[in-house]
Amino acid sequence: xxxLVRHGLTWANEEHRYCGSTDLPLSDQGIRILNDLKKAAIWxxxxxxxxxxxxxTLQTASILFTAAPMVELKSLREFxxxxxxxxxxxxxxxxxxYIHWISQIMTEPCPNGDSREQFHxxxxxxxxxxxxxxxxKPDQSIAVVxxxxxxxxxxxxxxxxxxxxxxxxxxxxxxxxxxxxxxQVIDFIEICATTAxxxx
Length: 200
Known about the structure:
Elements: E1 2-6, H1 11-14, H2 28-40, E2 48-51, H3 55-64, E3 70-72, H4 89-92, H5 96-103, H6 116-136, E4 142-146, H7 148-158, E5 175-181, E6 184-191, H8 194-197
Helix pairs in contact: 2-3
């Protein structure tokens, strides 16, 4: 079994700002919600845990999967929003560079940040490492604490056409349980944090 988990809230999440490569810690609210989720046991004890290396994923993993050995996997970091990091839509909506990027997001890189192709290639490589680790020890359970864009990329490629890309992105603290057979994902169950921690 593999569990895909989105990190807890940061102040940038709370203010609806683009945050990819910026290494923010969890907010006080984010920590409180994750502790509520830990008490509610919506995420199980696992044998092993990957995190992206950014503070928000390591902190989340340390709260939810306390006893699991942890390994950093940088390829599962969020999209780098470059010049738009830590800005929100209201701050960017009249910016010509932002308007151009939004209109060409499928083909052109974010200014001083990732392109869609670069990001997806990096995520595919990281996900292949996770599947290889699970295949080596098929009885083990693995948690992957990562980012919303990473999770949406993985789920959209495994289950193409089932949802729009952004519909795959879980809320902070939520994610998916993936059933694995012979190194392939065959089914999933969505795990929603809001039912355990209240609406946030």
